[in-house]
Write a structure and sequence with these properties.
This protein is α/β, with parallel strands linked by helices. The protein has a single domain, classed as Rossmann fold (3-Layer(aba) Sandwich), CATH 3.40.50.300. The chain has five helices and seven strands. The strands form two sheets. A five-stranded parallel sheet has the order 2-5-1-6-7, covered by helices on one side. Strands 3-4 form a two-stranded antiparallel sheet. The protein starts with a strand and ends with a strand.
């Protein structure tokens, strides 16, 4: 059996996880989700690299591990991948298990269409990529609400979005032209 790998991308806060969950529900038990967030570098490594304040930038992920996982999904069998715990902002090794019976993998993440620093190896491994493009003000408010829900004050959340999420969103926005389809979502 050959798996189909469908990419779901867009800026931070675009609704990728929500869209992926809805698609998995629609497709049924032979679909699974692989979130790119599990490939975040651990906090200790980000601090060592001096990149903690830019967590979520392309160089704060294990792109080699992500590519290796996508390649493994092209072969039969069970594939294990890291998940991500937002409460502690850490990857969780082996938290995602994609069974041998899974036919469609919904791969969701910001940099699926990024074309530098190793990320250019991702797009050829995906069968199709959808780019989610919500209104920017709605996207930013979602991000702020998410950061507040996980313990930041509103001021801390707004500062984080301006310092980290907004620059990452700008990087992602220029990749929309490489998508198979751009969806204007709310």
């Amino acid at each position: 059996m050959t798996r189909t790998l469908l990419g779901i991308t867009g800026a931070p806060g675009a609704g990728k996880s929500t869209y992926a969950d809805a698609e998995r529900s629609r497709l049924g038990p032979t679909a699974a989700i692989l979130p790119m967030d599990g490939f975040h570098l651990p906090q200790a490594e980000l601090v060592r690299l001096g990149r903690r304040d830019r967590m979520g930038a392309p160089d704060t992920f294990d792109v080699d591990g992500f590519v290796a996982t996508l390649e493994a999904l092209r072969r039969p069998g069970v594939v294990r991948a890291p998940g991500f715990d937002r409460a502690i902002e850490e990857p969780v090794p082996g938290a995602v298990v994609i069974g041998a019976d899974i036919q469609v993998v919904l791969v969701e993440g910001n940099y699926l269409l990024h074309d530098r620093d190793g990320w250019e190896r991702v797009r050829p491994l995906l069968d199709r990529v959808v780019f989610l493009a919500p209104d920017d003000a709605v996207r930013r408010e979602r991000l702020i609400a998410r950061h507040i829900a996980f313990g930041k004050s509103r001021a801390e959340a707004e500062t984080w979005v301006a310092r980290s999420d907004d620059p990452n969103a700008e990087l992602v926005a220029v990749t929309a032209a490489r998508a198979d389809e751009v969806l204007r979502v709310s």
